[in-house]
Design goal:
It comes from Vicia faba (Broad bean). With 276 residues, the protein is mainly α. It has 10 helices and 3 strands, in the order αααααααααβαββ.
């Protein structure tokens, strides 16, 4: 009987301890809830709602920016095609301008942009179909033959007195024969370029077509148009070469006013002068 009583007393004490422990845990939880409630009062809920709305709006803006960026990236190839087409058109118009007499050109009032719109109105919209509408000839027109003929390149030979007037340092060991032979070579280079300008594509060898296009572009440049010229790359003898003697001859001829030179892209261009 006593043993049963002791057992019941132990069980009751154990149950009471568990109940008190549970009660204390609950009190701690309630205390944490009270602290949390004091940290985030109900009045802050509208502020949190405003923040959430602002974040949502920013997310929409970011998505819009991404969409715009994607559209711009997709438009880049079209823009490149448009620029390439305009560059081709510009070259064609430059070649066409060679057909126009100078007095007529002075009276022209359309700007390049207006001419482009007049010739190709479909380019007012940058849609993919507009690029197909611009069909430029693969072969730019050859320069027109003048009624009186273009004439041969000038061969303004150096006289003995001109050569003697130079300083001994500039003249060096050059002879009159070497200098004038170089002038003959320069005239032959210029004549070859004149023939490239005037020749139609079907009469040119395939390996000369790319050079012909370059020469025709150079021939339209301000200061070169209508004049005889040759490139540094054309200097290959027989009398004039890009060696020390050839460079000395070019220095002498430049000093004597037989040519002037300029740069067009990566080309060094020599423009022949006519005798005064």
């Amino acid at each position: 009987m006593d043993s049963n009583s002791n057992s019941n007393s132990k069980n009751a004490g154990s149950s009471l301890d568990a109940l008190m422990s549970s009660f204390n845990s609950r009190i701690l939880e309630l205390q944490e809830f009270v602290i949390a409630r004091s940290m985030y009062p109900a009045s802050s809920i509208p502020d949190l709602s405003d923040v959430d709305a602002a974040v949502s709006a920013m997310e929409l803006q970011v998505q819009t920016l991404k969409d715009n960026l994607r559209n711009e990236m997709e438009a880049i190839p079209k823009a490149k095609k448009f620029i390439d087409a305009l560059l081709q058109q510009q070259k064609k118009l430059q070649n066409m301008s060679l057909y126009v007499p100078s007095q007529t050109a002075d009276r022209m009032t359309l700007s390049n942009s207006e001419t482009s719109r007049a010739l190709f109105p479909e380019f007012s919209g940058l849609d993919s179909g507009s690029f197909e509408a611009l069909k430029l000839d693969a072969e730019p027109p050859a320069l027109p033959k003048e009624k009186k003929g273009r004439g041969p390149p000038p061969t303004w030979y150096v006289t003995g007195s001109e050569l003697d007037s130079l300083s001994s340092y500039m003249r060096g060991r050059l002879t009159l024969e070497k200098v004038n032979a170089a002038i003959t070579d320069m005239a032959s280079y210029a004549e070859a370029n004149t023939q490239l300008i005037a020749a139609p594509k079907k009469k040119l060898a395939e390996n000369l077509w790319e050079k012909a296009l370059e020469i025709r572009d150079i021939a339209t440049m301000e200061g070169i148009k209508g004049k005889h010229f040759f490139l540094e790359a054309d200097i290959k003898g027989p009398a004039l070469k890009l060696d020390n003697t050839g460079k000395a001859i070019l220095t002498v001829l430049r000093h004597l006013g037989r040519f002037n030179e300029t740069r067009v892209g990566h080309h060094r261009v020599f423009i022949l002068h006519k005798p005064h």
